[in-house]
Specification:
Shape: globular
Order of helices and strands: HEEHEHHEEEHEHEHHEEHH
Structural class: alpha/beta
CATH topology: Rossmann fold
Helix content: 25-40%
Strand order of the largest sheet: 2-1-3-4-8-7-9-10
Distance between the termini: 55 Å
CATH architecture: 3-Layer(aba) Sandwich
Number of strands: 10
CATH class: Alpha Beta
Largest sheet: 8 strands, mixed
Radius of gyration: 19 Å
Length: 297
């Protein structure tokens, strides 16, 4: 059995810290590894409360949930003031810091078209504080604040359509990615990092602890999310131009994504059918947008 390598022995091309603060099978840690390897060393990583935290070797600036967008903006302005166009202000936020508590500051930064890059690792709940529901939590998901019992069937509403919400700010670039499709993820980071103005990449990052699945199945779960249409891979530029990056001839049934996750184990056939209809309807709408090249609501 080989000895574990030390932090100093990790090549600089690998910008992540091993093992860092991540759990086994952590999709967010993999998202960080892929994204920051593509970004390179000239990055100041901005963070707010989320997990995992100590995941990259880049310089880091941290703040509160509400201040993420403002802190990121301030760094970008400071870099511009000293002429450091070679260094990028990049956020690595969770869904709570993007969809919910941190939304106001990010919305303001988007509206002003600040020259920042927001990378969101979406594990669909507040995982670092015990798996409380967020605006990103899917309908019927069991969390510590949306339990399953006589009077509760898990979360009662669908997750926010955050890519379209930020696209409605008419920013240069908004995209989704998945740790199950690393080539697509890296290509989007490489493309976005050269764009002037506000960029956002939302990465689905399965959480074995909160989603309750075998940590060895992280990539399988991530790929299933894309293949069933639950997590479409797409790009939106300037609030109008639209492109789907993955278009199978036929989507797999959502049961292939839902069943391996114990957070959905309580769902009835009727509830599964409801999610299937919702997913199918949204997919058909996205296909129309892709065909026209423009967002069709």
């Amino acid at each position: 059995m080989s000895e574990r390598i030390t932090r100093a022995q990790i090549p600089m091309s690998e910008m992540t810290i091993t093992p860092g603060s991540a759990c086994q099978g952590c999709g967010a840690a993999l998202a960080a590894r892929l994204a920051f390897k593509a970004l390179g060393p000239n990055v100041i990583r901005h963070t707010i409360p989320c997990c995992p935290d100590s995941v990259t070797k880049t310089p880091r600036s941290g703040g509160v949930f509400e201040g993420g967008g403002a802190l990121l903006t301030g760094t970008a302005h400071g870099l511009a003031a000293i002429g450091r166009s070679d260094v990028k202000a990049v956020a690595f936020f969770g869904d709570g810091g993007t969809y919910d508590i941190g939304f106001q500051g990010l919305s303001g930064a988007a509206e002003r078209n600040e020259n920042v890059f927001v990378i969101t690792k979406d594990n669909e709940a507040y995982m670092n504080t015990g798996n409380q529901r967020s605006g990103s939590t899917p309908k019927y998901s069991r969390t510590s604040t949306t339990p399953v019992g006589v009077a509760s069937r898990g979360k009662t509403t669908h997750k926010k359509n955050i890519p379209f919400i930020f696209a409605a700010h008419y920013v240069p670039y908004v995209a989704t990615a998945s740790v199950g499709y690393p080539e697509d993820l890296i290509a989007k980071v490489n493309y976005a990092k050269e764009i002037e103005g506000f960029k956002m990449l939302i990465i689905q990052a399965p959480c074995p602890v909160g989603w309750r699945f075998d940590p060895a199945k992280t990539i399988d779960i991530a790929r299933s999310g894309v293949q069933t249409g639950v997590w479409p891979l797409m790009e939106i530029e300037y609030g109008e131009t639209f492109k789907l990056n993955y278009k199978p001839k036929e989507l797999k049934p959502v049961t292939e994504y839902l069943k391996p996750q114990a957070r959905f184990r309580h769902m009835t056939d009727d509830e599964v059918n409801e999610i299937q209809e919702f997913t199918t309807g949204r997919w058909e709408s996205l296909l129309k947008s892709d065909e026209s090249g423009k967002i069709i609501i």
